[in-house]
Known about the structure:
This protein starts with a helix and ends with a strand. The protein has a six-stranded mixed sheet, sandwiched between helices. The chain has a five-stranded parallel sheet with strand order 3-6-7-9-12. A four-stranded mixed sheet has the order 11-10-8-19, with no helix packed on it. The protein has three domains: 5-314, Glycoside hydrolase, family 3, N-terminal domain (TIM Barrel); 333-557, Rossmann fold; 614-744, Sandwich (Immunoglobulin-like). It is built from 19 helices and 29 strands. 30% of the residues lie in helices and 20% in strands. It is of the alpha/beta class.
Amino acid sequence: MKKDIETRIEELLRQLTLEEKIAMIHGDGLFQSGAVERLGIPPLKMSDGPMGVRNEFRRSEWINSGTTDDYVTYLPSNSALAATWNRELAYETGRVLGKEARGRGKDIILAPGINIKRSPLCGRNFEYMSEDPKLVEEMAVPLIKGIQENDVAACVKHFAVNNQETERLWVDTYVDERPLREIYLPGFKAAVEQAETHTLMGAYNRFRGEHCCHSKLLLSEILRKEWGFDGAVISDWGGVHDTKEAAESGLDLEMSVTPNFDEYYLANPLLKAIQDGEHGDGKEKIEESDIDEKVRNILRTMLRLHMLGEDRENRKTGTYNTTEHREAVLNAARESLILLKNEDKRLPISPKGLKKLAVIGQNAEMIHSNGGGSAEIKALYEISPLMGLKTKLGGNVEVNYAKGYYIPTRQEQKELNWQQHSLERKKELTKEELAEALRKQKLAEEESRRQGQILLEEAVALAKEVDEVILIGGLNHDYDVEGRDRKDMLLPYNQDALIEEVLKVNPNAVVVIVAGSPIQMAWQDRAKAIVWSWYAGMEGGNALAEVLLGDVNPSGKLPETIPQKLEDSPAHKFGEFGTKETVTYKEGLYVGYRYFDTYGVEPAFCFGHGLSYTEFAYKNLEVSVREDNFSAKEADPDALVTVKVTVENTGAVDGAEAVQIYVADKEVSLERPVHELKGFQKVFLKAGEEKEVTITLHKNAFGFYNPERKCFQAESGEFEIQAASSSRDIRLRKTIQLKREYRYQ
């Protein structure tokens, strides 16, 4: 009879020496843990992976290994995936990532990142999903399941309240208990309880004074005791700062960025602390039982991945760069694209009769897969928007390209950054050195402006001469990047001026924004058509061409609010963000649309917004409440409320609509946002077709966290159920009554 996992863990644990146990709980390479060859325990091999399996590094150096077989499928960013509002696509994307990780010999893929998008400025927003915890939950769970069905562990990150890159190693975040429980933790809770993630990564920042990677509150109390997590907690690279705290918290594996692996906090310093405690005064004694628990969690993860003993013979091997994977990426990219504005049905562009097309803007040809920090990969290929349009139009249309704006070369940017650094430390400079730094910075800025003006004028001249203009701008991984936040919401490289000037000479120009974070659009009212494209993976250019030319009907919806200006963002209007040692989330529960909709602040584009080339009508909203006679035989035995709504495609083309269900608590005893997303379903409809959509709501769709009772509660009373196309486009409403109160964790 095959032994169960816990029995096998205890048998292995009894055979391990203290030194071997400690070898297993810290890195023995930049992306692998220590092994115990004597007992057949291999290292855990890891890779970054938010947008594909990262290229291979040398064991102890941040230098590419030089191998040529680490080109992989380039996936859409998590922001793009969330914009599909399609759980099936999340699952398929997870399957691709899991298969490719196994194909590359990895045990753990360091993804997905599911932190809440609190501020438009966060440099890693492109890696994250949404400002809304429900959308994060619903998209992250199938993504994780897809990864892990391939004998690869997902490593959900960054736990927790990790919402800025500025001072990311030290910033101390303070969040009240209600927003912590209602906004920032639900995604992680779902990853543990619903997706059963095998591993989880602690964050760099501090939370309420404790480093997250050895926070007893987060790791021991909430993660382990409340949620019952029994997998492995891995530190972010360099996120551990104290041996005793790390040993006695819920952390299991310390990873870092330096090659002195034996000197990590959970390496020789830990061994010495245990030995000194045993033979010394014992004041700082660390119990070996704490180490045993870490080893148990690591062994449990290995056994779940079929890494030990005879299990290895049945472990999945994986594949990468397959046709199936490329098709999955293309499908996700297609559904991620968002039609923000389409005045006078400006889109789609008909190729019939089209002779000359101008494509303007460097994001039309920019390659994004090789940047962004830990999200960078070696893509097998990447179809740019310009390539996609040329391929789609064939030789029948003259496609002209103009850069439109100037991006400094890496060397020029390096020199400019150096000059800026020199100016920032001006107290250390002599007058002559300061004058020289100022002179060089001025010359560099003048040259950048001069080059930019030339490119702008060339683009405007081209826009006058063609039948159609597609202007493709936005951000890149100089701005959407790990390690730093943006300074503002403005488009870089003088792109606003370019867009304004092009629209003056060609008012029908279509504007496409490639970005992972909101931008300010001062020209929004003057552009007739605006499309939001993310870092959409290796097939992103083909997907964009299909949408612009009408072969694919856009169905993406915004997973976050786009403010008109930064000052409208609640994190900046009420809260704190940036360089302070302590950052307090003073906006509380009012993150994203919860603020905009409650306080009546008009966004540029609201949460959940996304147009189509067809129209959808909502009708026949039915809401049934079941508070008695719960039956385990039901399809969803925990359903408290069942919502049914009919959606009809009233237009002339096939399309898809993400039906959103918001709940408004009308008699709440504590302050709550005006409404909150509690369910959604994407439905595909042929022209003229209608379907009934059914969405079930559990008790947690009606509850809030009560800090005094230390639990969630859904009160009795009146609630409004809203069927909506976006947070601001409520199509149907119905009021219900809950007869009794529910409490839950």
